[in-house]
Amino acid sequence: MIAIGIDIGGTSIKGAAVTSEGKVLKVFSMPVTKGEDGVTTIKKLANLTKEYIAKEHLENDIVGIGLGIPGTIDSPSGVVTYSNNLRWDFIPVVKLFNDVLPYPVRITNDANAATLGEAKFGAGKEYQNCIMITLGTGVGSGVIIEGKLYEGNEGKGSELGHTVIKMGGRRCTCGRKGCFEAYASATALIKDTKRAMSKHKDSLMHKFAQEEGRVGGRVAFAAAQAGDKYAQEVVNNYIKYLGEGLLNICNTFRPEVIVLSGGIANQGEKLIKPLEEYLEANNYGYPRTPKVKIINAKLGYDSGKIGAAALFF
Amino acid sequence: MIAIGIDIGGTSIKGAAVTSEGKVLKVFSMPVTKGEDGVTTIKKLANLTKEYIAKEHLENDIVGIGLGIPGTIDSPSGVVTYSNNLRWDFIPVVKLFNDVLPYPVRITNDANAATLGEAKFGAGKEYQNCIMITLGTGVGSGVIIEGKLYEGNEGKGSELGHTVIKMGGRRCTCGRKGCFEAYASATALIKDTKRAMSKHKDSLMHKFAQEEGRVGGRVAFAAAQAGDKYAQEVVNNYIKYLGEGLLNICNTFRPEVIVLSGGIANQGEKLIKPLEEYLEANNYGYPRTPKVKIINAKLGYDSGKIGAAALFF
């Protein structure tokens, strides 16, 4: 069985035929043209997909086409309600695709697609209940319950990055104050790093930032590793923020596993070990309540395409 | 179809045969003896249930026996892992029942049972995804996803009262600081009311407390209604705390509906109207994201028995 999985990003769109074993076949791609309206982009994408299917002689093998799209998606209706990144407003993606291609088409949020990919074929494949948290520009999330993606009413559920962990705290892009995202995203970590750097001119963070050519999410971790106490403070606070958000997820879902993805997750054990210690020390009802494993995502950038295709598996 | 539904409380246990239409037949009950160990209590209860079934001539009609029990419950194993209220520690309820009665026995947390009752036969019966929040001594919760109770790993999920809304805030009974429960339970409202009363000797709250013979959850609402500004401040803060916790639930699950139960929920429109206004003003992505309805529970004390029986419907 083969489905097409398409991952729409802020600057480029990538798609591929994906087998029901999660294997990615030949990839196709197109850029996202800034300022282009969504209808035009989707029409181009549908035509490109049609060409790809013809060129790869897949006409009779395709069971459907799945798309992961950033923004709020009304998956039952097949409409992108709104995408802040793409500036899309009520784009009827499924209808537009079906004007060009006769296959079933399903859409979901990009974080949901990536989660489904990891849950079915990556880090989460041995678990029935798993949550994926993506630590990037924001804090993305996807929820798998009994092996199925949980999307909520009109596909608008599982915005775990926009749950408040500190009422009245930092202003979030969503309008509320104190969201998990405003403390645990890479953006938040970088802001905290910069704040500490401007306060401590003698910190090793300056050296690592210079080596990297910018202040990225890695700087505080690298400097802390090298023994810098100011960087250690930044990292400790970040672990605490992330830990509190993950504890909330544990107490809400008590999943078997939380999968971390995104740039910050690349810190691996430097992140996961202190995080697991924090979770264990604060786990609700522990030891009578099972621990929640924290593991790294495995599929990298493929998770979105694989998960979008997996909407049909 | 008939199942026995049993609701174990802190001071008494009530059970009844319940039809698959949610109708409660004759009720039986026994007191909870303080200090008695769990094994003894469950043995007594199983024998009482056996007598009840014989007396009501239900031997051939019963499809199973369900119990809702306060505490952390390992429902797949049929064991009460720990109940703080009852001082029970690893009580194998299902096994103990089956020593006396030959029917299938299932157990769940009391909040889960009440939620299932409301979801199947009460306020939530028209909805597939619904969350119930009980505002009592603590903040209890139950989660219904696609018509089914969501229990999490080892039945330890959906402790929404123990998600932090204010990091570093009020100490919660669970050990963390800033839990939803520490701000939105009846206990928290009463503490806030008492604090305001001791600060404002001229507040109408004193009059209402005297009339009621105690400072209960109603006092601030009644005094606010009568125009007392200090009481209004207590109520406004309570709405804000409760609102933030409910917004987190909306962004996590985007259910169709949140059902409120417990003493405070009896405030009805005085609570629900300002709460809905708060949710609408702060709803993620609204108006592109559907509103979540807030409604009152309908079944009162029967919800626990009905829901426990509904574990078999």
Would you mind describing this structure in some detail?
- Two copies of one chain form a homodimer.
- Chain A is an alpha/beta fold and 313 residues long.
- The first copy, chain A, has ten helices and 13 strands.
- In chain A, the strands form three sheets. In chain A, strands 3-2-1-4-8 form a five-stranded mixed β-sheet. Chain A has a five-stranded mixed β-sheet with strand order 11-10-9-12-13, with helices on both faces.
- The longest helix of chain A has 25 residues, at 229-253.
- The N and C termini of chain A lie close together (8 Å).
- At the A-B interface, helix 8 of A face helix 8 of B.
Oligomer: homodimer
Q: Enumerate the spans of chain A where pLDDT stays under 50 for 5 or more consecutive residues.
A: none
Task: Quote the distance from N terminus to C terminus of chain A.
Answer: 8 Å
Backbone CA Rg of chain A: 20 Å
Mass-distribution shape of chain A: globular
Output the strand order for the largest sheet of chain A: 3-2-1-4-8
Class from secondary-structure proportions of chain A: alpha/beta
Helices and strands of chain A, in N-to-C order?
A: EEEHEEEEHEHEEEHHHHHEHEH
Record field, number of beta strands of chain A = 13
Question: Share of helix among residues of chain A?
Answer: 25-40%
Overall pLDDT metric of chain A: 95
Sketch the major β-sheet of chain A: 5 strands, mixed
Determine the most extensive contact between two protein chains. A-B, 44 and 44 residues
Total of helices of chain A: 10
Tell me what portion of residues of chain A adopts beta-strand conformation.
15-25%
